[in-house]
Design goal:
The complex is a heterodimer of chains A (about 300) and B (about 575). Chain A is an all-alpha fold and about 300 residues long. Helix content of chain A is about 80%, strand content about 0%. The chains are: A mainly alpha (about 300), B alpha/beta (about 575).
């Protein structure tokens, strides 16, 4: 019952966040200087006639007051209508729908690599000899601090140009997914693993760890069965960072490896001032955040029995 | 000497192989030049059916020794010994694999503070059952039944319900019992209890001690680690007193407690505050305090007939509880504190003692009732902006660290109080030195920051700060509870000296009845915000008016017939 109320509250808050995001993007688009009608017709180079411009203004309600435009915008949003891409002449939902699969596959592959790597490295390196910890954390710092495109370039040079194990780019087959996913995963691992190890080392100092050891539990099971759950909570809170790394990173990685996906769509839309698509991608990102945070919140209640009673 | 011979262990025990044996143990932490040795050439052995107590103050190495016995010395440790045996097996070269077979199954470990010693994210049943999962071949439902049996055997009521709950849903006493159940689950022949009663209220601690007492006997060997001689006296057969990583004295309980040979043990025994220690110094000699102890003529002779220093009448205070309910923390409490006297307030956690202190200090406004200082209430003092009255009541806390700005030096902390007391600027430096001298702190400590001081030194700074205002009343809220016994003795002696010298009145709050009996003239027993007993210490303790008071008194762990002439 308490859990259900919690979910409903969170959902309501999530809808509020989406509405806020929609409103902010709408305002931003209006504050950008330039003639929207001209953009719709393909920019200044298209040299449209005055009649065409007037026609477009009427069709897109551009001659109407601000409030009417905002109301119509929200009304369309509620029906799932994000408008039509100026550039692709496609409904925005369709334009995004065509690309989302590729990015989802990339993000999923990156998470599948990053999380086990993070957990394994942090669990094995926490509270170990000083030299092991300095080597491991040195590697992590390099991955966390190096820009994604440099990691990607380095991987390309080693594994594509030199060893020729993986293709240079494109969307063809799982082999093409390996290097882009690894690029994203390493950046996430670099930060997350440091946080998780610090948490683990704090937890491993706790008396209940000593109790578990005194029962005859071995070191690795103690770390996994007792320490990990405690240490995972702050890491879970960092899922927002992970989502941001995946969304932002996909722009860079998809461009670098010339892959299709939301990232390259976003970049192309920004170049061409394709406002409906940009709004669509912003709303999609906001929705992903809301859903991820909702899931995380529910996970807390499963991990920590004190969350429900508190 | 004859008593030592009479109380020697029965020969039947001597014949059996010791459960644990250490010979020439040294333990160090850190690497290379940073290595610090904390245990030096230590030897001990415990036979089946025997209970050894390892007694010492913080930093004496008693916990490290206990952990080393089961191979849990900790990361970064360096253990050396001439011999190290467990049940006759040589354990000196043992690794994780061998130790994990012994831990839990042959040796159970009970830690203090069961809230953090149990995994807060797992149910009590899972925690107790873990030992069975690791060492037994019981299936899930059999384990669950066994857990309920174990919880029942350690006196946990409603064991089925409790097994499904999380540690934070249990009281401190029940958690400690659950921890004991987890340690004895696999029926080990050797139990280690590290400060098993330290975090508990007196009546609960007494119950846990009885439970532990019931576990020894038979062939079970036990090691009890404690800072409190009185706690181990009723439980142990032999006592080993540790200081700075060395056992300074070892023998049967009677021998060590009645005829201590080592000066440190003698000091430790003399430092225990109790009824019989009233009017006597707890420390044998304290060189750091030579100036402060020079008897000074009392400015005011204690005289109860004059107006009281503090008069509390019928104070009541309720706080908002969960769900809009109101919880009465203090209910109709009245007392007067005579000039130059000490009133002790006793009560367990949640009894309302700290709320009474805050009301007396005037920082909490009671819902009903009055507090009079110098004949007028706090509200009247506030209305007339009487700062002198405000200054005349000061307070010291259990943990002075939290009441200091960590970035300020001792000189600044006291200087601030001296300035607030209205001391003219040119006289302040001299006054700071005078205060440091009064509380027995060397002047060279004045540039130190609170974190660089020991617990006892911090409490001295807190007392100096309170004295800066030349108060008539000092409210002491558990001022010695966090201190080691010998440090506690020095602070109690200091408080007594200052009282004699300046005619101070103390409102002294403590959960420790020994401390209360040592220092107070009158005592007030508080439970659930209500005064149950109130009167002179002798009267209340000899003839308690209330059943609860009687239970509190019975819970005081007693030292068996300590030889009186060792304390003169």
């Amino acid at each position: 019952m308490a859990v259900l109320r919690r979910v409903l509250t969170r959902l309501a808050v999530g809808v509020g966040v989406l509405w806020g995001a929609a409103t902010l993007t709408f305002l931003a688009v209006h504050l950008i200087p330039g003639d929207t009608a001209l953009l719709i017709l393909g920019g200044p180079d298209a040299r449209p006639t005055a009649e065409t411009l007037a026609q477009v203004r009427t069709d897109y309600l551009l001659d109407q007051p601000f409030t009417v435009q905002y109301g119509s915008y929200l009304g369309h949003l509620l029906q799932g209508d994000l408008g039509e891409s100026y550039r692709l002449r496609l409904p925005v939902t369709e334009a995004i729908g065509q690309q989302i699969g590729a990015t989802a596959a990339l993000a999923a592959a990156a998470v599948v690599v990053a999380l086990p790597l993070t957990f394994a490295v942090a669990i094995l390196s926490a509270q170990r000899a000083a030299w092991i910890r300095s080597i491991v954390s040195g590697i992590e710092v390099v991955f966390a601090a190096t820009p994604t495109f440099i990691i990607g370039f380095a991987l390309l040079i080693v594994f594509s140009f030199t060893l020729r194990w993986f293709p240079i780019g494109g969307n063809q087959g799982p082999a093409a997914l390996v290097l882009p996913a690894l690029t994203l995963a390493l950046a996430i691992f670099g930060t997350l693993s440091q946080v998780l190890r610090n948490e683990l080392e704090d937890v491993l100092e706790q008396p209940f760890i000593l109790t578990a050891r005194s029962r005859g539990m071995r070191d690795l099971p103690v770390r996994i069965r007792h320490a990990l759950r405690h240490a995972a909570m702050p890491v879970l809170t960092m899922s927002g960072f992970v989502v941001a790394a995946l969304l932002g990173g996909s722009v860079v990685v998809e461009t670098l490896f010339s892959r299709q996906g939301i990232g390259s769509l976003a970049l192309a839309s920004v170049y061409n001032k394709d406002l409906p698509v940009i709004i669509g991608i912003v709303l999609l990102s906001a929705a992903v955040y809301v859903v991820v945070n909702l899931v995380i919140d529910l996970l807390y209640t499963f991990i920590d029995p004190k969350v429900v009673t508190a | 000497m004859s008593s030592t011979a009479l109380t020697a262990s029965p020969t039947s025990l001597v014949a059996r192989t010791p459960v644990v044996e250490l010979e020439g143990l040294s333990v160090g932490f850190g690497r290379g030049s940073h290595r610090r040795e904390v245990i030096h050439d230590l030897s001990l052995s415990i036979r089946p059916g025997e209970c050894l107590a390892l007694v010492g103050e913080s930093g004496s190495g008693k916990s490290v020794t206990a952990r080393t016995l089961v191979g849990l010395t900790g990361p970064g440790s360096h253990v050396r010994s001439r011999a190290q045996r467990f049940n006759g097996q040589d354990t000196s070269g043992w690794g994780e694999r061998q130790w994990t077979r012994v831990r839990g199954r042959e040796a159970g470990f009970i830690l203090q503070d069961a809230l953090s010693s149990l995994d807060s994210l797992r149910t009590v049943g899972d925690e107790v059952g873990e030992v069975l999962r690791l060492h037994g071949d019981l299936d899930r439902s059999a384990r669950r039944r066994r857990v309920v049996e174990l919880l029942t055997s350690v006196g946990v009521p409603d064991p089925e319900v409790r097994a499904g709950q999380y540690p934070h849903q249990l009281s401190g006493g029940l958690r400690q019992r659950a921890l004991i159940a987890s340690a004895i689950a696999a029926d080990p022949g050797f139990l280690i209890a590290d400060e098993p009663t330290t975090a508990l209220d007196a009546t609960i601690a007494a119950q846990v001690l009885r439970l532990l007492g019931g576990l020894k006997g038979g062939s079970t060997a036990m090691l009890v680690v404690s800072h409190d001689l009185a706690v181990v006296a009723g439980l142990a057969d032999r006592v080993a007193v540790m200081r700075d990583g060395v056992i300074v004295e070892e023998g049967t309980v009677q021998a060590v407690l009645q005829d201590p040979r080592h000066p440190y043990t003698q000091g430790l025994l003399a430092a225990i505050p109790s009824r019989s220690s009233r009017g006597r110094r707890l420390t044998i000699r304290d060189p750091g305090q030579s100036k402060a102890v020079t008897p000074a003529p009392s400015r005011e002779v204690p005289d109860p007939s004059t107006a009281p220093a503090l008069a509390v009448e019928g104070v009541t205070k309720a706080f908002a509880g969960p769900g809009g309910s109101r919880r009465t923390a203090v209910d109709g409490v009245s007392f007067t504190l005579g000039k130059g006297t000490t009133l002790g307030i006793v009560g367990e956690s949640g009894s309302g003692k700290s709320t009474v202190a805050r009301i007396a200090l005037g920082v909490e406004t009671p819902d009903a009732g009055t507090v009079r200082v110098r004949g007028r209430t706090w509200a009247e003092h506030r209305a007339s902006r009487d700062l002198a009255a405000r200054r005349s009541v000061q307070m010291i806390y259990q943990d002075p660290l939290q009441s200091f700005d960590p970035r300020k030096t001792v000189r600044q902390v006291i200087g601030q109080a001296v300035a607030a007391a209205g001391t003219p600027r040119p006289a302040r430096a001299g006054r700071i030195l005078e205060l440091l001298d009064l509380v027995g702190l060397p002047a060279d400590r004045s540039p130190s920051r609170p974190l660089e001081l020991s617990g006892g030194q911090r409490q001295r700074v807190a007392i100096a700060r309170a004295l800066a205002a030349e108060p008539a009343v000092i409210i002491c809220d558990e001022p010695v509870s966090a201190l080691d016994i010998t440090v506690q003795a020095r602070i109690l002696d200091l408080l007594t000296d200052l009282q004699e010298r300046f005619g101070l009145s103390y409102l002294f709050i403590s959960h420790d009845l020994g401390v209360i009996q040592h220092i107070s003239r009158e005592v007030l027993v508080l439970k659930d915000g209500v005064v149950l007993d109130h009167g002179p210490v002798a009267g209340v303790f000899d003839d308690p008016g209330h059943e609860y008071t009687r239970r509190l008194i019975n819970a005081i762990p007693e030292l068996p017939a300590v030889r009186k002439d060792s304390r003169s």
